[in-house]
Amino acid sequence: MATVQFKKIVKKFGDNLVLNGVDVEIKDHEFVVIVGPSGCGKTTLLRMLAGLEEITDGEIFIDNLLVNELHPSKREIAMVFQDYALYPHMTVEQNMNFALRLRKMDKAEIAGRVKEAANILQLNKFLERMPKQLSGGQRQRVAIGRAIVRKPKVFLFDEPLSNLDAKLREEMRVEIAKLYQRLNATILYVTHDQVEAMTLAGRIVIMNHGIVQQVGSPIEVYRKPVNLFVAGFIGSPTMNFLSGRLKLENGTAVFFNKFITMPIPAFVLPQSEAQDGREVVLGVRPDDVLVERPGGEKCSGKIEGVLEVCELLGHRENLYLKVGGQRVLATVEAFFNRSPGSAVSLCFNYQNMHVFDKATEQRISE
Amino acid sequence: MKKQLSAAAKRKRLQHFFIHAGIILFAGACVYPLLRILTVSLRPGDKLFSTDLSLIPAGATFVSYARLLGDTMFLRWLWNSLIITLATSFIGVSLASTAAYAFSRFRFPGKKAGMILLLSSQMIPAGMLILPLFLMIMKLKLMNTYLGMIIAYSVSSLPFSIWILKGYYDTIPRSLEEAALVDGTSQVGAFWRIILPLSTPALSIAFLFNFTTAWNEYLVARVVLFSSKQYTWTLGLFELQGQYITQWGMFAAGSMLVTIPVLCVFLYSSKWLISGLTLGSVKG
Amino acid sequence: MEILKSIYEVAWFILLIAGGVAVLEGYLYSHFKFYRKPLFEVSALIVFPLLGLLALKTFGLAAPGSYSWLAVSEVLILLFFRFAVKGRHTVPFMLLAPAFVGLALLLVYPFVFEVYLSFHDLKLTTIMMWKNTGTLPFAGISQYVKVFTTSPLSEITFWALLGRTLVWTFSNVFFHVTGGFILALMLNNQIRFKGIYRTLLVIPWAMPQVVAVLAMRGEFHATNGFVNIIITKLLDTLPFLGSLGVAPVQWLSDYPLLTCTLINVWLGIPFMMVVILGGLQSISSSYYDAADIDGASYLQKLRYITLPLIRPVLMPAVTLGTVWTFNNINVIYLVTGQAGGTEQADILVSALYKAAFTYNRYSYSAAFAIVVFAMLFFFSVFYLKTFDAAKDER
Fold first, then answer.
1. Is the CB of B262 less than 8 angstroms away from the CB of C208?
2. In this structure, is residue C296 part of a structural domain?
3. Structurally, how many domains does chain C consist of?
4. Euclidean distance between the first and final Cα of chain B, in Å?
C-alpha cells in the first residue's frame, strides 16, 4: 500500500480555473473521502491522480514517486468509475482479468486472483455472464472486483454509488466499508453525498470552487466546521443560519437581529472588545433547537415562534418554525402534537452553537 | 356509451382501410418495375417486346439467363465489380475508422478546420472531380485497370464514413477507454481492444455504404474502363440494354442477378443502415 | 487464372498502400519523437528529402525539380511541428494522417488541378501534347467567357440550363418531401403488415440505381413501356377519352425532363420516408395525448406538434437531398446519355459531364464545373448562415 501527496495542484480548462492550489496528503492504509458540490473539482483531482487529466501546475506523488508524467497504466492504481465502465463485449471474468492479461501474468495466478475477488464479492455465479445481463448492484461489484484483482497501491472510487437506487446504495455502502476493513488499502473516494462521506471516511476532504475547505475526521468536520460552507454542506437537515450583529453588554457578547436577541456565553465565543459591532452568522443544527422544553443553563432563553409546517419522518419530526421573519428548522422526537399556526417557544443549545464572521465566512474560534 | 365506442371503432376501421389502400397503391408502384424485370427475364426470346402485362409470361423460360451467362462476360463483369468494390471499401473503412477516432476523442489544433473540410467536400459536385481524376489516371497509365478504378473510388465515401463513425464513437462512453488506460493499455491499444470491437455495427454500416456506392457507380467506370473484359457490371448492363431486341431479355436477367443479392443485403441490414444514416444526418 | 492474377494485382496494391501508411506514420513518429533534439532540423532537411527522392526514383516518378520540392515541403512540415503542434497531440495527428493524405491526393489535388485546367486549354487537339510534355497553352479567362457565351452541348445555353436545374431541383425535392411525409404519416399508425409495407416501400432505394433507372426507362418506352400500355388499354375500353386528347406519349423523345423527374421522384421518396418516419417515431406520444386533451384536431396536431418536432431531422435531410438532386448526373445520363440522346433533359452537372466526355472539351468543362461549384458553395454558405441564425433564435 502507499501514500499519496498532492502539492499545490492547479488545473485550468482554458481560462476556467478548476483547481486552485490543492494540498492534500493521504497516509498509508487511509480511507479518504473527497466531498463537495458538483463542479467543485473533486473528480478532476481524482482523474489527475489516475493520469487521465493533464496537470496544469503542481506535483502528485504516489509513494514519494513523482507521477506527473507517468502513463496511467504505470501508476499502479485501480479505479472504479461512476458508470462502472465495464467492457460490454467481455464477460465478467474477462473484465476482471483484462488488466492482468495485459501484464502477461501467469495464467494460474490470474485465475487465483479472480477467484479470490469473486469470492469476496459473491460473483462466482456470474463469471460467464456479460455485463448487460447483470443488475446495477452486480455491475458495481464487478467494477470493484476489477479493481481488487489488480492489488494496486491506491484504489480510486469516482462517485461509485450515484447510479444506484437508495436501498442498494445503503447496502453497497456497507459492503465497501467491510471491504476496506478486509483489504486495509489506501482508498481515495469521491462523492457529492455527505452521508457517504460521513459513514465511510477515515478523513474527509471538503472542497468547493477548486479549493480545499477543510480536512478532518468526520466528527471534526461535523462538530467544528471551519467556515460557513462546511457548516452548511455537512449534516442533514442543513444547519440553521441566523445573521445579525454582536454587541457588548456588561462584558458579555449579545447577538441580535430584528427578531432575536440572545447573549452568547464565553465558552462559545471569546469575549473581547473586538467583538463589539461585529457582523456575524450564528449556526445551529436543527437537533440543537429545543422546542417546548425547559432550557437550563447550557441553553439560550425562551424565544417565541410560530409553527408553520410539521414533517413526520417516523421516529423524528421536522418542525418549520418562524420567529418574526426568521425561519428556523428544528428536529424533535415524534410526535409533536401541535397543529400548524400554533405558537411555540424554543431555545438554542449553546453547546453546539457555531459563530462565523459574516464577511470572511470563517469560524470565529473560541 | 357503448354505442359511441362502436362508432369510434367503426371510424377507426374505415381510417385503417384507407391507410392500407393508400400504402398498397404506393407499394405496388415501388415493386412493380422489379416484377416487370422478372417477367421480361423469363420471357421466351420471340416475345420480349410484347404488351402483355401478366407477371409470369406464357412459356416462361430461363433461356435469357442461360444466354447471359454463356454468351456474355457477365460473370467476369461481376468479378471485376466485386474485386474493385471490396478493395475500395477495405481501404475506405480502414482510413475512416482511425480518422474518425481522432475527431471523436481528441482536441488538437486544426480540428474544426478538418471537420469543415470534410463537410464542404460534400458540396463538391461528384461530376466535377471525374475529369481531373480521369486525367490523373491517364497520366499514371492506369486507364482500363482495377487500380485506376480503386484509386478513383477509394476516398469518395471517406468524408461520409468518417462522419458516421465519429457519430458512433461519440456514443461510446469515454470512461471505457479510461478504464482500459488504467488497466494498462496505451491509447492506441484502447482503440484497438475496446473501441473497434464495440463499433462493429457502425463499421458494418460504413463498409456497406462504401460498398454500395462503389458497386453501383457508373459514371467514372464509363470513362476509365474501355475494354469489355474490364467492365464492371453497371457498364455491361448498360451496353446490354442498348439497341437490340435480343439483348433486352439478357439485360433483365442480369438485372435480376445483381438486384436480388443487393436487395437481400440491404433489407437485412436496413435497420442498421437507416439508424446510421439518420444518426449522421441528425448530427450533421 | 485471370482471377488469380487480378487478386494478386489488387493485393499487391493494398500492400503498397499499407507500406505507404507505415512510412508516413514512421515519418511523423520520428518528428514527434526527436523534434526537440539539437540539430534535428538540419539533419531532417537532408535526410527526409533524400529518402523521398530515393522513393520517387524507385517508382520512376522523379522529375528534375523533385529534391527542391521535397525540401520545401519538409521545411513547411518542420515549421508546422515547431509552431502549431509543439510535440503534443501525437496520437490524433498520426491517426488522421493517412485519411488526410488520401483526401489531399484524391480530393484536394484534383480540385486544384481542375482550377488549373480551367485557365488553360485542354481539348482533343492538345491532349497528346499534355500527355508527353505536361504543359498546356495558357488561356486566361477565355474558358470562363465561353461558359456564358457558347453552349456546352450543341445548342442549349448556360442560362437555360441553370433555369432547368433550379426547376429540376425544386420539383424533385418538393415531391420527395411531400411523398415521403405522406407515406411516413401513413406508416406511423398502429397497422398490420407495417414491417412488410416498409420493406416494399424502400425497394426503389435499395435496388442498384443503374438497374432501377434503366428498368424505369423501359417502362416509359413508347410502345412496350407500362405507362403507354395502360394508356392504350384505357383507350380500348373507354374510347371517348381519345376525343379528350388522351393518347400514348413519346415519353423519352418528347418529354425527357418530365420522364427523368418522374423516375427520380420514384427513386428519392423512400429515403425521405425513412428519415421522416424515424423523426416521427422519436416524438413522444405524450405530446399528442396532451393535444388531445386540449382538443386539437388532426390537422392542428400536424401543424403545431409534428412539423416543429421533426424539423431538426427534416432540415439536414432536405439540405442533403437538395445537394444530391442538384448534382444528380446518374438519372439523366442513364436515361438520355446514349448515342443520339437528347439534350432536352440536361441539367448543369450532366451537361458538364457530357461536355467533357462526349464532346471532349476538357478545359471548357473544367471552367464550367468551377462556375457550378461556386454557385453551390455560395448557396450553401448563405443557407448555413440563415440556418444558424434560425437556430440561435430558438
1. yes
2. yes
3. 2
4. 51
> Cβ contacts (< 8 Å) between C186 and chain B: which residues?
19, 22-23
Give the strands of the sheet with A4-13, arranged side by side.
A16-26, A4-13, A57-62, A65-66
Pick the CATH number of B70-283 from 1.10.3300.10, 1.10.3720.10, 3.30.830.10, 3.40.50.150: 1.10.3720.10
- Cα dihedral B83, B86, B87, B93, rounded to 10, equals 170
* Grid cell in block for residue A105: 501474468
- Cell numbers that stand for B134 in this block: 480521369
Domain boundary pick from C87, C119, C138: C87
C177 with C292, same domain?
yes
Residue C201 is which amino acid?
A: L
Q: Does domain A4-233 correspond to CATH entry 3.40.50.300?
A: yes
Please list every residue in chain A whose beta carbon sits closer than 8 Å to the beta carbon of residue B194: 87
Q: Which among A47, A52, A98 is the nearest to B183, CB-wise? A: A98
Same domain, yes or no: C304 and C219 = yes
* Contact residues on chain A for B173, CB-CB shorter than 8 A: 83, 85
Q: How many CB atoms lie under 10 A from the CB of residue C145?
A: 12
- pLDDT for residue C39: 77
pLDDT in tens, B37-72: 888 888 886 666 666 666 777 777 888 888 888 888
In a domain, C205, yes or no: yes
Query: Per-residue pLDDT for C166 more than 90?
Result: yes
Partners of residue A82 in chain B, C-beta under 8 Å: 175
C374 in B contact zone (CB under 8 Å): no
Task: Provide the CATH number for the domain around residue C271.
Answer: 1.10.3720.10
Task: Give the start-to-end residue ranges of the domains of chain B.
Answer: 2-61, 70-283
State the burial class of residue C281 (Cβ atoms within 10 Å of its Cβ: 0-12, 13-18, 19+). Answer: exposed
Q: Is B176 on the interface with A (CB under 8 A)?
A: yes
| pLDDT classification of C177: cutoffs 50, 70, 90 | very high
Which residues of chain A does B180 touch, with a Cβ-Cβ cutoff of 8 Å?
87, 98
**Burial bucket for residue A349 (CB in 10 Å: 0-12, 13-18, 19+):** middle
Residues B102, C189: C-beta atoms closer than 8 Å: no
State the residue for C-alpha cell 405524450: C286
Q: Identify whether C386 is part of a domain.
A: no
Cα separation, A157 vs A46, whole angstroms: 8
Single out the residue in C87, C111, C128 at which a domain terminates. C87
Q: Are B182 and A50 an interchain contact pair (Cβ–Cβ within 8 Å)?
A: yes
C189 shares contact with chain B (CB less than 8 Å):
yes
CATH H-level superfamily of A240-357: Nucleic acid-binding proteins (2.40.50.140)
A55 Cα to chain B: minimum distance (Å): 16
The identity of residue C215, as a single letter, is A
Position C28 pLDDT exceeds 90: no
Which segments of chain A belong to CATH 3.40.50.300? Answer: 4-233
d(CA A255, CA A243): 9
Mean pLDDT for the stretch of residues A305-310: 90
Q: Is residue C215 part of a domain?
A: yes
Which amino acid, C275?
V
Helices and strands (DSSP H and E) totals, chain B:
14, 0
The answer to whether A99 contacts B184, with C-beta atoms less than 8 Å apart, is yes
Q: What would the pLDDT profile of C86-123 be if each residue is shown by its tens digit?
A: 656 778 888 999 999 999 888 888 999 999 999 988 88
Q: What is the pLDDT of residues A43-76, one digit of tens each?
A: 999 999 999 988 999 999 999 999 988 888 888 8
Interface partners of chain A (CB pairs < 8 Å, 3 or more) are B
| Residues C77 and C172 reside in one and the same domain | no
Run of H or E residues at A308: strand A303-312
Residue recorded with cell 509552431: C83
Q: Tell me, what's the ipTM? A: 0.84
Question: What is the span of the domain harbouring residue C201?
Answer: 156-360
Among C52, C58, C96, smallest CA distance to C74 is for C52
